Amino acid sequence: VKLKQGLKSAMAISSDGNAYLQESQFWRLYKEDPATCAIVMKTSVGVVYLLSCLLEPFMPSFSREVLHQLNMSPDEDLSFCDDKGETAKAKRPWDFVSAGHKIGKPVPLFKELKDEQVEAFRIKFAGSQAERILKEQAEAEAKKVAEKLKGTKLSEGSSKKKQSGGSKSKTAEEVSVAKLDIRVGLIRKAEKHPDADSLYVEEIDVGEEAPRTVVSGLVKFIPLEEMQNRKVCVLCNLKPVAMRGIKSHAMVLAASNEDHTKVELVEPPESAAVGERVTFAGFSGEPEASLNAKSKTWEKLSADLHSNGELVACYKDVPFTTSAGVCKVKTIANGEIR
Question: For the TRNA-binding domain, which residue ranges apply (predicted)?
Answer without folding.
Answer: 176-279
